[in-house]
Design a protein that fits this description.
InterPro entries: Arc_rbn_hlx_hlx (IPR013321), CopG (IPR002145)
Number of helices: 3
Helix content: 55-70%
Shape: elongated
Radius of gyration: 23 Å
Largest sheet: none
Pfam family, one: RHH_1
Structural class: mainly alpha
Protein name: Ribbon-helix-helix protein CopG domain-containing protein
Number of strands: 0
Length: about 90
């Protein structure tokens, strides 16, 4: 996501306990930003992690439906064995 673009924003009410607000404010101050920006970054990170996890699951499911060709796997194992460093 490009944070330099101006995007429409909507104010959202979020309830947080005092300790969490204090910790957020401390981290925001250390990073030279504000609580809202820190929460935006956190929300974006959660969404990105969720999307990546979903993509990983989709890829794994695809390999379960159509597994690798055993000949391809055997060739990869053979190639890996040939390229291992001599210890």
């Amino acid at each position: 996501m490009n944070y330099h673009m101006v995007m429409a924003r909507r104010e959202v009410l979020v309830q947080l306990d005092d300790d969490l607000v204090d910790r957020l404010d401390r981290v925001a101050s250390e990073q030279g930003t504000n609580r809202s920006e820190l929460l935006r970054r956190g929300a974006a990170a959660v969404l990105e992690a969720t999307e990546r996890a979903r993509a990983d699951r989709d890829l794994q499911d695809a390999y379960r439906r159509v597994p690798q060709d055993p000949a391809f796997i055997e060739s990869a194992v053979h190639l890996a064995a040939q390229t291992l460093p001599a210890w």
